[in-house]
Amino acid sequence: MKSSGLILAVESSCDETGIAVVEGGHRMLANVVASQVAMHAASGGIVPEIAARAHLRWIVPVLDEAWAAAGVRWDDIDAVAVTEGPGLAGSLLVGINFAKTLAYVHGKPLVPVNHLEGHLYAAWLDDENRDVAEPIFPLVALIVSGGHTFLVEMRDHLQYRLLGETVDDAAGEAFDKVGRLLGLPYPGGPEIMKAAASATVHDVAFPRAWLGDTFDFSFSGLKTAARRTIAAETDGSGTSVGDSPLPADRVSELAYGFQESVVDVLVTKTLRAARRAGARSVVLGGGVAANRVLRERLADGARAAGFPLVVPRPALCTDNGAMIGAAGARRWVAGARAGLDLDARPSLPLARR
Ligand code: KG4
Ligand code: ZN
Q1: What are the extents of the domains in the chain?
Q2: Mean local confidence (pLDDT), 97-103
Q3: Which candidate, 289, 292, 332, places its Cα nearest to that of 81?
Q4: What are phi and psi of 141, to 5 degrees?
Q5: Sign of the C-alpha dihedral, residues 124, 127, 130, 131?
Q6: What's the half-sphere exposure (Cβ side, CA atoms, 13 Å) at 260?
Q7: Span 85-103, mean pLDDT?
Q8: Strand 149-154 and strand 139-144: pairing?
Q9: What is the CB < 6 Å shell around ligand 1?
Q10: If you ran DSSP here, which 8-state letter would residue 123 be given?
Q11: Could you tell which of 36, 145, 259, 294 is best to mutate to test the pocket of ligand 1, judged by most ligand atoms within 8 Å of the CB?
């Protein structure tokens, strides 16, 4: 990559305030994340207004900490990268205005980054604990987050062909909704993973939506199956956050059955897509990629099929600034620049079919 490409990156699209300093698209000099998860746990989900205010509150302390950790000077910084979308409008605007101000005051170019591209490029961040240093083209990537679930083929940097996406809920959304039905705290993903770890069998007919030979996904049927099962086994009085309607053993079984169904479909479709594309590696990213069972199952399947799986460590799968720095460096080299009129793009897609 041209020059050192020292990027200061800002991420604020959802409920994490992240600022990082990334060199050459892969080396993290600093990566600081302030998470609002505990704040939103009480309401059982994200309240956009509260999320935006928390970004405002935290963005300066997060910058201060990242800056101190990175030990660089503004003279060394090549560009300021920022998430322009997709995400919550109010949350995005906090990061965008902050990044604009930094770019203007320090006379640096402003580089707009797609949040989903960030999740993909987290796979290029340094990690000595894996088989291959970085993904090899052509590759197939599965991105599974709270708002998005899709499979994409890449034959080179910054080039995407959408193979399939969810037709209803995102995988993370399904985890969060079923978690809530089971009375687990928000966000449901990590809680379901924990609860599922103590079960090995289940007796519920959780559907697997194959949608024919396509690479599309559907997870809304799982919610219905969970709701029906819970209603049949309780008096139907419903639950409040953190208050389960079922005994802990039963919650574990249902969590296990649900997770098996999601993982089975994600792994099967990803491996099929990789074989069809003649992929030389598979990339996994997004918050749900922090799920241990998904990581292990996809790694085993990919190894058996002869291509390595590249998946960032869990803290780099969930939202963070470093992933925006990794994608931002590529965009900066490619000449992407934004003016001070950069606006939030809440529904920005990564690619079209
Ligand atoms: O990528 P991310 O941090 O934010 C978005 O861009 O959406 O993803 C958040 C999602 C949430 O739905 C959360 O429940 C899920 O990732 N998640 C998990 C795990 N950790 C986070 N899902 C399953 N297993 C996990 N361990
Ligand atoms: Zn994300």
Answers
A1: 6-127+316-333, 139-310
A2: 98
A3: 332
A4: -120, 135
A5: positive
A6: 17
A7: 98
A8: antiparallel
A9: 14, 145-147, 172, 175-176, 187-190, 193, 286-288, 290-291, 318-319
A10: G
A11: 145
User: Would you say the CATH fold of 139-310 matches that of 6-127+316-333?
Assistant: yes
Confidence class of residue 319 from pLDDT cuts 50, 70 and 90?
Answer: very high
Q: Cα(106) to centroid of ligand 1, in Å?
A: 35
Q: Is residue 205 predicted with pLDDT exceeding 90?
A: no
CATH 3.90.1300.10 fits 139-310, yes or no: no
> Given this structure, which CATH class describes domain 6-127+316-333?
alpha beta
Q: Is 225 left (phi over 0), alpha (psi -120 to 50) or beta?
A: alpha
pLDDT at 241 over 70: no
Is the pLDDT at 286 greater than 60? The verdict is yes
Q: Which two tokens stand for residue 252?
A: 């574990």
Does 3 score more than 60 pLDDT? no
> Residues with Cβ within 5 Å of ion ligand 2?
145, 319
* β-bridge partners, 143: 150, 285
Atom of ligand 1 nearest to the CA of 187: 14
Helix ranges restricted to H, the chain: 37-41, 48-70, 89-106, 115-121, 171-181, 188-196, 220-233, 248-277, 292-305, 314-317, 321-333
Q: Are 283 and 160 in contact (CB under 8 A)?
A: no
| pLDDT for res 242 | 59
Q: Is the pLDDT of residue 26 over 60?
A: yes
CA of 351 to the centre of ligand 1 (A): 21
Judged against a pLDDT cut of 60, whether residue 144 lies above it is answered with yes
**pLDDT at position 2, please?**
44
